[in-house]
Amino acid sequence: MTQSRPSLDRIVSSPSYRLAEKDTEFLARPELRGVRLQLELLKPELILQEHNIRSTIVVFGGTQIVPPEEAQRRLDFARHMLAKHPGNPRWRRAVARAQRIQAKSHYYEEARRFAYLVSRCCCRSGECHYVIVTGGGPGIMEAANRGAFEAGAKTVGLNITLPAEQVPNPYITPELCFQFHYFAIRKMHFLLRARAVVIFPGGFGTLDELFDALTLRQVRRMQEIPIVLYGRRYWQRIIDFQALADEGVIADEHLDLIQYAETPEEAWETILRFHGEEHLLEEVPRQPPSA
Q: pTM (2 decimals)?
C-alpha cells in the first residue's frame, strides 16, 4: 500500500521545524536548563551595561513592611473583626501581628528616604553609580524604588516568579525591571555591581539574602562592601551574631562585616565613609521628598 506524502503545511507546522530560539517548548525542557541559566545571566547584564549602570546600592527588606497608613488600616480591620468575634484566637493573633507591623511601618518611610538620598548622587559624567536595586516587590522594596523614583533617578527591580505571584511595584524604571526564574542568578545580579547592601527588617527571604552576602564577604568571594543592618534593636532580637562568635563557629573579626544604622543619613554616611567618598556628603539634601 502506497503511503501518502505529507503536505507542506504539515511539515512546516511541525515543532521540529521551528527555529530553536523561538521554540519555547524546546527551551523549557530540563536538558536546556544550562541555556536558560545563561540567558538569565546575560539579559540583565547586557541591559544594565546599555544603561551605563556601573555600581549599585542593594536594599533588602520585608514585603509586609507597608506604609504607615496601610499598616493602620490593617490594624483597624483586625480590631474590628476581633470586636465582632470577642475571644476568637485567630483575630487576637491578627491584632497582635498587625500591631507589630504598625510599629515597624516607619521603616517604609526610612527606606524611601534612604533611597532618595542615595539617588540624588547617582549620575555622574553620563554614568550611573549607586543605583538603587531591590527585589522589585512590595513593602521595603517598593519604598526604596519609590525614593529613587522621587529623586528622578533610574532604579532597578529584580523580580522573581513565585507560586503566589509577585507583581512588580510601580516605581521601578520600566526598562530596568527584570523577571527571574532562578534564585541563584537573581542573587548573583544583586551583588555583581553592589557597593553596599542595606538590610531593613524582613523575614525568611530577607534573611536568605543577608546570609548570602555575609557568607560571600566572609570567604572573600566578592568585592569588599559594607553590609548595613538597619534597625539594631530588630536585628539583635532576631539574630544573635555575638553568640555565633562566642560558640566559636565564626571568627571574632567576622562580626566586623556587619554595621548598624538607625537613620537614612547614618546608613548613607556609613557607605560613603567605607569607600572614602565623604565629599559626597556635601551633596546630601536635608529635606525629604513630599509624602
A: 0.91
